[in-house]
DNA sequence: AGGAGTACCGTACGCCGTACGGAGTCACTC
DNA sequence: GAGTGACTCCGTACGGCGTACGGTACTCCT
């Protein structure tokens, strides 16, 4: 599967696409387009949602739309820009109720932010595999940043720490979903279920995990495997979030 | 660039490779191998370190070794297994001094763990792009797990929480390195430096980030960009680690 | 009426992982 | 000592990928 990089194209063109800047005047020469950017992006998102980022190819998106592969390039400069547009498009789903992000105290708010990000990545797990070192600065990413900053506004924190906190919480969620989602992805990629894989692997682990070399792992591993493997995948998310919010509480408390 | 999945091969074969189980008796027919698994893995790691996971191809590794591409398949079942072996190989570099992980109090220990993981991912950033939902359970991953569990042993925590804490801390570090590293990766992939990219992007951001729609982002973004963009990339790591350890302190303290 | 710019898309290039089969080499059996 | 079978090395080829290039048909502007 692919890690796709966002923000790989020409910034001017990418920004124009993200913000849907009209190209010329209203009247452009040439045949009436049968296709537009939104339909391409929607098809690409459908595909990535259903089959993962590895299945996302220009040819496949074109086929799903019933057009030739090269037709896409009349509307989108390349795959990199398409990925930018996909990400900004699905980010629109976040925070349908904007008031919720500023409801209650800071702990409620950050919890809302974390849960919204969790739901987002569960719905669009391919977004986990995007390297957003150069984020697509579209309207919906802006909105997300704005709303998440509001969750930590008014606490007396310096601006830098507001940014750092938002990055910390959303980064944590990304990792937590990743841990769960990579197991699901592995099932699709290999065609082997988690149970089958572990059944095939466990005998070798048993041979190798001797209590002399690895006493702590031999003690903890089986217990953790049983309790976390069988249980709610949200458990490690909830555990981590509680620790994180407690830690943030120390910072927020001492500024008061 | 590619997200590679670990643990995609036949578990029996993968475990045999990871633990370097000799294949038959000592005397095998056929010509003396000019190549072996270790040399292949070393070449692959060198390549991924230098040029990233996207540059890692079977053909390229073979070329670097001066052999035909298909020769690799005499020693390694496929690229998936090679990636497993690469990861376990570089994990051997972690914790050269095992005593350090159990030195001092829990906070010192977890800080050591976090810093070791930071250094590891900085040295081998391609490891950030591996989906380890089915981890390669080789000797060095086992050792890592063992040592990191020891850092949180003896605190009176249940086994499950020991595992959860280790996952939380290492997951945080992975995210923190990722944030920094993805910018560096983007430079290599696009050939455009961070400064050039921002210079080209900033005018469009200025147009679009109006203080009416995005008041908080308009206030915080520039400050954060200036202080974090110019400064030490470790800053967000240190900030997050402090919050995380404070939060863990709440848990550890209340169990005492 | 004609030029220009556009949408659609067939073909092709250079990558990728790897299946297949052949040639050469060695340890073993008889 | 000849034969057998397993093994290493690897050339070729297949079906995928992103996308450069150029052709054709269409529509607007002058």
Automatic annotation (TrEMBL), chains A, B:
Keywords: DNA-binding, Transcription, Transcription regulation. SUPFAM superfamilies: Homeodomain-like, Tetracyclin repressor-like, C-terminal domain. Signal peptide: none annotated. Pfam families: TetR_C_1, TetR_N. Residues 57-76 bind DNA. GO terms for molecular function: DNA-binding transcription factor activity; transcription cis-regulatory region binding. The keyword 4Fe-4S does not apply. Residues 34-94 form the HTH tetR-type domain. InterPro entries: Homeodomain-like_sf (IPR009057), HTH-type_TetR-like_transc_reg (IPR050109), HTH_TetR (IPR001647), Repressor_TetR_C (IPR004111), Tet_transcr_reg_TetR-rel_C_sf (IPR036271). It comes from the Bacteria. Gene3D superfamilies: Homeodomain-like, Tetracycline Repressor, domain 2. One of its GO terms (biological process) is negative regulation of DNA-templated transcription. PANTHER family: HTH-TYPE TRANSCRIPTIONAL REGULATOR RUTR, TRANSCRIPTIONAL REGULATORY PROTEIN. This is TetR/AcrR family transcriptional regulator.
